[in-house]
Amino acid sequence: MKRFFYTLLLSVIGTCSIQAQKQLVFTPTWTAQAQFAGFYVADALGFFKDEGLDVIIKHPSASNTSLNRLKSGESHYVALHLVSALDMIDKGDELINVMQCFQQSGEMIVSHKPLRGLKSLDRKRVGCFKSGISKLPIALARREKVNIEWIPFISHTNLYVSGAIDATLAMNYNEYYQLIMAGQRLKRNQIIYMRDIGCNVPEDGVYVTREYFTKHKAEIDKFVKASKRGWEYAISHPKETLDIVMLYMRQAGISGNEDAQKWMLKECLRLLVSPRTGKRTYKLEPEGLNQANSILLQGGEITKPITYKQITEP
Amino acid sequence: MKYNSYIKPFRTLYARITMWIMLTVLVVFIIITYLVTYFGAKGVLLGSTENAKSRMEITNQRINTVMHAVEVAVYNTIPEVELSLNKPDDMYRIVRRLLEINPYIVGSTVAFEPYYYKEKGEQFSPYAYRSVDNNIQTKQLGTSDYEYHYMDWYQIPKLLKKNYWSEPYYDRGGGEQMMTTFSHPLYDKKGNLYAIITADISLEWVSDLLRKSDIDFNNKALELNINSDAELQAELENDSDFFYHYAYSYIIGKGGTYIAHPMRERILNDTYFNHSMKYNDSIDNLIGYEMIDGKSGMRIINRDGTDFIVSYSPIERTGWSMATVIPNNLITNRSIKYATIIVGVMLFGLLVLFIICRSILKRATRPLALFAHSADNIAKGNLNASLPVIRTHDEMKQLHDSFAMMQTSLKQQIEELKTVNAQKGRIEGELKVASDIQMSMLPKIYPPYPDRQDIDIFGSLTPAKAVGGDLFDFYIRDEKLFFVIGDVSGKGVPASLVMAVSRTLFRIVSSHLEEPSGIMHQMNEALSDQNDSNMFVTLFIGSLDLRNGHLQYCNGGHDAPLLVNLKENTQQLLDCKSNLPVGVMPGFDFESQETDIDTDTLIFLYTDGLTEAENIQHQLFTEARIFEVTQQLLTDKPEVLSAQSVVERMARAVHQFVGDAEQSDDLTMLAIKRKNI
């Protein structure tokens, strides 16, 4: 802990004094929460500095998403859901995956009524994330010819609790926990995990522009190395990591619930492990990419498959 | 020693009675205390929960009044919106107007569907709000950072097609306060939704309302000393220990979010279930579920070993629910407080009762000790011992009178006893004289005829009382031994008189008659004459010619004598005719009998005092035992057997047989041995 506070102090001082060095901006997919714990740890404990990098974490807003920030050059590194990245690449953006954090899917469907597969949701209203990460279940439903009225949301809890929607997409580490905390008594038959219906695709990864990739390979390696170190540290020091996450949340002006963040951290750390190898490689695996490609293509969400080479080393 | 001194206080009657009264009262007192505490706790619980319920109803009404007013204000605005649909910019004026005439509404918008006005773009939502200085401002609500079409207040009423009160939220857009929004969907004539009209109200006052209500409840219903808002606030914000010592209320939304709670940091940040799931008590979660399901109830939960009573009921219109939590120990403490007062009063009463009881009983029973002292004195012989003075007219007075009467009666009886004793002594003296006279009538010098070698006589009479009714006598006249043995009916003095008369008659009559039957006849006539008392006597009279051993005899109802032949070592009863006892029938003809008595033959005469001597088992001595004794004497030394030894031996045998039994009849024996010269 001492080291952590010293580093924080140093980082504050460093921000003021080392202006000469080029500052790298990293933007996660959403506001501060334990989903990005590894990056906060790398920042807080000076792992980036150890690599000689001056990294600053800037969170996105609804109007200035991480992708927008990447395209505008405000951010050099952004975290993106693989499906979002594939969608963007399909639309012509040149994004390169430099690091794959979550090797598994944490996405799920939660319903008021018991479910017997995706078919139970036919002609139902299902809440989906307004961001692109819902494209995988949307494509899957289309492929399976299940007619769902998708209701995009920014916040799902009240929408679901009020009964305005029949079911909702949720992340196991976040929205699911919020529903439980909102007093929803969810039984196993009210839940479908995407991983259980052939959609255990990788999720959060770190992306840069093609231009940045070609020009700053050494920096990228250092960034990835420091980030991996941050995630590994989070695995071995979950309590300290939780403190760091809560600190970053307070700095970002978000009043987080510690229990919720504890749950999120635990679930997110689980997603780091590859379902195929059982290891944390932090690299995009071709099998995962192919699975995502296949579903999105069949569901009509992308026009052509994105090759492994295209997304990792163009 | 310790034990004795310990129980000593209970030796006195008044102490024991006091103790029993106190014990009885104590038992009743304990039962009453238990019942008072039990029902008191129930009453306090009922009162507190009823109070909590009514508080919740008041809060419910207050919130509903405000919300109803908001809804009415919004409904009243709708016609104006519909009339101004062709002039979209008029919407700013309309929402501003809504705020102007409804001061409790802090914001309002008419949020249109995407591209409803193509020239206004995707988002068009004229919004009026109150700025920090309370001026009403207007602006377009929807921005790229605030896409209202995805907001709860827009989406939910749109999808549900009905009014919606949003879950409370924190307004960071300027008001910096907790708010809720009422949304009403607007439809065109074809039934298509074209906009959502809203009104925002601040909810800060809800927390204040609840806090004031809590202070009031703690102060009045639970009698806890919370003097000021500030004090409670300090308790609420800094000390979670507060929850264990004060009652408090909270409100949660449909999704369990805290809308009002003593700990302000929980409001809108935490849900009920963030906390309830940390506790093991599943009731905790159940309460949350029932609250968000809109149910009312009262349940008891346990947190860290402390019981809490939770009453909850829904707040209409909103889907919110309010709960009041009362630590059970507050209820218990209150009932204990009441019970303590009652116990205190009862203990005081018990003490007073003890003092009064002890004093009254001590005074009432004090004469008893004095009576005991007097009784001791009387027992020691002081019949004039003084008695305690009794002024009351109760049982003690009766006891005093009885004592006095007893004292007087004792004195009289003792005087009488003295007289009787004196009389008895005189009678006893006279009886002794009589006994002496009676005994003097009997031959008492043995051997009676020391000069004569041919005859050996020994007689004995042991009266059962001072004087007896048996007699024997003998004397020699003209070489003839006249002898008699008799037994007067009855005992004591009457019998002794008849005995004296009979003996005297025998001496007189036999002095001039030879025949025993004649003697008996004369005696019978004399005794039966004017025999008013019906006394009679059995007699055996004999006349033994000492020269030849010829014996003439006559039996008047007496036992037959035993003849013991010492030479032949044989024994037999003398053949006797029974005849009647003397004195029964005048003129009776007594039959005479005769026989010869050989030398060395012993005539053993006796009264029924021998044969009918009784031992403790009421067995009689009987003739058979007489035979046994004489047989034994014969076996031992027949040649030296004297008249005296036979009588004494027989006396010993009968004493041995009788043992400790009281002598029931006079015992008389007479042995006459005709010796060989």
From TrEMBL, chain A:
Gene3D superfamilies hit by this protein: Periplasmic binding protein-like II
Residues spanning the signal sequence: 1-22
Superkingdom of this protein's organism: Bacteria
Signal is among the record's keywords: yes
UniProt entry keywords in alphabetical sequence: Signal
Record-level GO BP terms: thiamine biosynthetic process
PANTHER family: 4-AMINO-5-HYDROXYMETHYL-2-METHYLPYRIMIDINE PHOSPHATE SYNTHASE THI11-RELATED (PTHR31528), THIAMINE BIOSYNTHESIS PROTEIN HI_0357-RELATED (PTHR31528:SF3)
Protein name per its UniProtKB record: NitT/TauT family transport system substrate-binding protein
Lineage: Bacteria, Pseudomonadati, Bacteroidota, Bacteroidia, Bacteroidales
TrEMBL record, chain B:
Superkingdom of origin: Bacteria
GO molecular function: phosphatase activity
Organism, scientific name: Xylanibacter ruminicola
InterPro entries in alphabetical order: Bact_Sigma-Reg, HAMP_dom, PPM-type-like_dom_sf, PPM-type_phosphatase-like_dom, Sensor-like_sf
Protein's UniProt keywords contain Hydrolase: yes
GO CC field: membrane
Domain HAMP: 362-415
Protein name stated in the entry: Sigma-B regulation protein RsbU (Phosphoserine phosphatase)
Cell membrane is among the record's keywords: no
Residue ranges of the TM segments: 20-41, 338-361
Entry keyword set: Hydrolase, Membrane, Transmembrane, Transmembrane helix
SUPFAM superfamilies, alphabetized: HAMP domain-like, PP2C-like, Sensory domain-like
GO biological process: signal transduction
